[in-house]
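Page 47, continued from p. 46.
Same chain as before, 235 aa.
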Amino acid sequence: MASTGGLVPITRAFLASYYEKYPFDPLPDDVSRLSSQIRSFIQDLIQGFPPTQGESLLIQEADSQPPHKMDENMWKNREHIEEILFLLERPHWPSVLQQSSTAEVAEFATTLGQLKDKFQATLRILESFQSRNSERVFNTVMTYMPQDFRGTLIRQQKERSERNKQAEVDALISSGGSIRDRYSLLWKQQMDRRRQLVQLGSATGVYKTLVKYLVGVPQVCLHCLVIFSCCDLIS
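Result:
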């Protein structure tokens, strides 16, 4: 069990002072220019190939304001990428393109295939980033827990909980749930994890004493759980 000496609560003020050392460089002008070109291209496509109801929903999603929470933003990015990958599959192309076999369509198909590969690679990076971050945070917290049966019980409970959540997702997919349905469930599960941390971090009275001494969670870690669970940390 790692020493908690020197640990301090991670608050908005603490994070703000930390990130002041790493100023964010503004996006280059090319980003705005390319975004405008893409939007213009989309409008041309919509005029030539009116979107279906599902495609219209995707367009509305893309035009909406990004979520405020950083982790919700990542889940939304994953959802949008999966929707794009779905539309890039040949069976989901506009019928005009599917029925044509001209050289122009063949070239277009090659371009779409290259785009699909790039989006697929981006999706894998996002999934890996979220998975590694989640595991790293959990392992960091566990270093401050007793390295005995209590730590083992916490790990087993986490693994059991994650298996149950995955079973929920699998059941939804088996029943024909859409990509949007799946990510709505994934975000609900993420919020459930937050609520559990809030309940643990906000423990009071006898329960707080049990958590601190029986489970072995240091007080400063309890405080951090509330901060991480409830706040957009640097907003």
